[in-house]
Each structure stands twice: as structure tokens, then as C-alpha cells.
Design brief:
mainly alpha
């Protein structure tokens, strides 16, 4: 399970490395030049700014998710190790004499 969690985290990190440089709002913000003086131009600019901010927020959330998956994998392994130690220690008990 920890390996699957870490693999999912790596997939997120790989996707983010490509997405962070993307300018997803450019097609919308580019409309402001195509529609000078029109009512749609300010709306396109506003939408583009909002989309950029939302996209950056999504990237930050995905980065936190990647980090959380790594922490979950670490805790999963620690739990397994703790259980293995407890089981081994229990086998050494001799009970009352």
C-alpha cells in the first residue's frame, strides 16, 4: 500500500511539473485584444484573472495532496513496523510461572 500511495504522489508531482507552467487563462485573456472597446473585453479579462487564480489554487491543493500521500505512506509503514514489533514481542512472552 505505501508503494501505491507514493506512486500516486509521484504521478501528481509529474503532472504538476507540466501544469504549473501552463497559461490556461491565455485563450480567454487574449479575447480582450480581439474585442477592444466592447463589453465582453472586461468580462474576459476578469474571467481570465479569476481562472488563473483558481488554477493556481488547484495546483497548490494538488501539491498538498501529493505531500499528504507521502505522509500517509510513511504512517502506514510505521504502523506495519509497530505491529510487526508487537507481534514479535508477544511471541517472546512466557506467561505466569
Amino acid at each position: 500500500m505505501p508503494d501505491a500511495l507514493r506512486a500516486a504522489g509521484r504521478a501528481i508531482a509529474d503532472a504538476l511539473s507540466q501544469l504549473r507552467s501552463a497559461d490556461c487563462a491565455q485563450p480567454v485573456t487574449g479575447l480582450t485584444d480581439a474585442l477592444p472597446g466592447g463589453q465582453a473585453a472586461p468580462a474576459a479579462a476578469s474571467f481570465g484573472a479569476s481562472w488563473s487564480m483558481t488554477f493556481r489554487g488547484w495546483c497548490s491543493d494538488a501539491e498538498r495532496h501529493d505531500s499528504d500521500l507521502g505522509l500517509a505512506a510513511d504512517r502506514y509503514e510505521a504502523g506495519d513496523q509497530g505491529a510487526a514489533t508487537a507481534t514479535t514481542d508477544a511471541g517472546r512472552l512466557h506467561g505466569p510461572r
